[in-house]
Amino acid sequence: MVQGISTLASNDLQQLVAGIKYWDEIYGSQASINVYEPKVKQDSNDLSASWIQIGSVPKVGKGVGIGAGSCVYPSFSGDSFARFHISWDNEELKKNCIDHNCPGFVQVSRSVGLGGRVHPISVYNGPQYVIDVLIFKDPKTKNWWLAYGSNNTPIGYWPSSQFSSMKDKCNFAFWGGYVQGPTASSDPPQIGSGHFASEGFGKAAFVRNIQAIEDENNKLVTPSIRSAHPRDDNPKLYTYDDYGLNDDSMHVYYGGPGKYS
């Protein structure tokens, strides 16, 4: 399913992003992801995700990463609901993995099912809902952990043994939305609410409460604005707006209609 941002994507996949790319040493991150159900064609094999990602990515070439968030992927799930998915690059198997479709993620909690429907979802010009996602590294075991919800409930972990380039730390993060698939740029789905970022709260999707872990003490801090690079690959289809910092975190609006304009 979700081939992570700038990871081991195959050459036949198209991808467009709108959000924040971050280049710096990072040991984890958390964010509150605004949840919508963007329109994606049932038979396209494309997906639209609202996502948090960390990884080890060279400035030139492809890297590896782990990520989680809300995703609409009809050809994978069989419906058009927003579902909670995880994705990672298993360097031992040399493949991208989703949820439990290959070994590599050890689930310890039954409270959140991978691939489960996210509900409720936000309504354009109506109530807004978020999911809280945290990815962090255990300094003792070196494993990468995933937590979910406002109480940071541990869901499971990726054993560090399957990674080499991100065994100790990462150098890249992404927060925002993206589309990916065989026709993701030639016949693009919606991202977020399906509306441009300039429409703001209640109408455009957002990621807020973005924080980074910058050392092995697992303390969450405001990401460095010097290392953050907001981006929209095709502003005719998707945009970002109102990117910035508040007292203790970063935020951004993102999204767009794709071909549904």
Low-pLDDT ranges: 5-10
Quickly count the domains: 1
Question: How many H/I helical runs?
Answer: 1
Outline type: globular
β-strand percent reads 35-45%
Summarize model confidence as the mean pLDDT: 91
Would you report the number of β strands? Answer: 16
Largest sheet: 9 strands, antiparallel
Please identify the structural class as seen in this structure: mainly beta
What Rg do the Cα atoms give?
17 Å
Percent helix? under 10%
Order of helices and strands: EEEEHEEEEEEEEEEEE
Distance between the termini: 25 Å
Protein architecture, described:
The chain has 261 residues and is mainly beta. 2% of the residues lie in helices and 43% in strands. The strands form 2 sheets. Strands 2, 7, 8, 9, 10, 12, 13, 15 and 16 form a 9-stranded antiparallel beta sheet that branches. It has a 7-stranded antiparallel beta sheet with strand order 6-5-4-3-11-1-14. The protein is globular, with a radius of gyration of 17 Å.
Provide a concise account of the structure shown.
The protein is mainly beta and 261 residues long.
Structural key phrases:
seven-stranded antiparallel β-sheet; Neprosin; Glutamic_endopeptidase; 16 strands; single chain; Neprosin PEP catalytic domain-containing protein; 1 helix; nine-stranded antiparallel β-sheet
What are the SSEs and their pairings?
Blueprint: E1 14-26, E2 28-34, E3 47-56, E4 64-72, H1 74-77, E5 83-90, E6 95-98, E7 106-107, E8 130-137, E9 144-148, E10 153-158, E11 170-181, E12 205-213, E13 220-221, E14 228-232, E15 239-245, E16 250-255
Antiparallel strand pairs: 1-11, 1-14, 2-8, 2-12, 3-4, 3-11, 4-5, 5-6, 7-10, 8-9, 9-10, 12-13, 12-16, 15-16
Protein name: Neprosin PEP catalytic domain-containing protein
Organism: Oryza sativa subsp. japonica (Rice)
Domain Neprosin PEP catalytic: 7-261
